[in-house]
Amino acid sequence: MNSFSELIKNRRSMRKFTGEPLSQDDVVTLLKAALISPSSKRSNCWQFIAVDDKEILDKLSRCKEHGATFIKEAALALVVTGDPLASDVWIEDCAVTSLMIQLQAEDLGLGSCWVQVRERFTATGMPADEYVHGVLDLSLQLQVVSIIAIGHKGMERKPFNEEHLQWEKIHINRFGGK
Questions:
Q1: Closest CA to 117 of 147, 95, 87
Q2: Secondary structure (DSSP) of 42-67
Q3: In what order do the strands lie in the sheet with 111-116?
Q4: What residues are paired with 81 via a beta bridge?
Q5: What are the backbone angles phi and psi of residue 89, rounded to the nearest 5°?
Q6: Where do runs of H (alpha helix) occur along the chain?
Q7: β-sheet bridge partners, residue 80
Q8: In this predicted model, what pLDDT tens digit does every residue of 80-100 receive, in sequence order?
Q9: Which among 145, 151, 143, 144 has a CA at the least distance from the CA of 113?
Q10: In whole angstroms, how far apart are CA 141 and each of 47, 80, 108, 121, 175?
Q11: Residue 112 and residue 73: Cα distance in Å, rounded?
């Protein structure tokens, strides 16, 4: 990428992957991006589980009734968890790092998609967080916020069209929609 502006316009959710594995260098770069992510008072309340095992990816793809099946086709899933005892803003910190991982993936020319886990449910009604805990045998203290599916792009997506920017959502010095 030549600029951050170009990076954020090109980063689009990717739900189709080629199946080609990621290089070790790419995985290390993605993990570094996660660990460099900012956190409140540098609490580093997040922890990450890197999954490339196809059987586990398949199980994780069933963590929600809708919107997670593509995880099984990803080369890597980064499960983003937070420790509520480490920070009162663990959800926000995990959200920030989830986006940092996605931006790093785009910078590497990889595709990614955020799978929301927190406050979601499996097809049987089980909380998605509880389901992922069972699949990965996570400590009960860790709360799953998201799973970032990552892989080589299985399709091309056009960059975000700036003609679709909703400038009416910007308010200067006051909110006019009383």
A1: 147
A2: G---EEEEEE--HHHHHHHTTSSSSS
A3: 46-51, 76-82, 143-151, 111-116
A4: 47, 144
A5: -115, 35
A6: 4-10, 24-36, 54-60, 90-107, 128-136
A7: 48, 146
A8: 999 999 999 999 999 999 999
A9: 151
A10: 11, 13, 33, 19, 40
A11: 11
- Read off the tokens for 149: 């599916």
Helix, coil or strand: residue 122 = coil
Q: What is the pLDDT of residue 176?
A: 63
Token digits of residue 7: 């990076």
The stretch 52-74 carries a mean pLDDT of: 98
- The answer to whether residues 92 and 98 touch, using CB atoms and an 8 Å cutoff, is no
This prediction has a pTM of 0.94
Q: Which two tokens stand for residue 119?
A: 């406050």
- How far apart CA 44 and CA 146 sit, in angstroms, is 16
Residues 6 or more apart from 81 whose CB is under 8 A from it?
46, 47, 48, 49, 94, 138, 142, 143, 144, 145
Long-range Cβ contact pairs of 138-143 (< 8 A, separation 24 or more): 138/49, 138/81, 141/83, 141/84, 141/85, 142/47, 142/81, 142/82, 142/83, 143/81, 143/82, 143/83, 143/84, 143/90, 143/118
CB atoms within 10 A of CB 5: 9
118 and 169 Cβ atoms separated by less than 8 Å: no
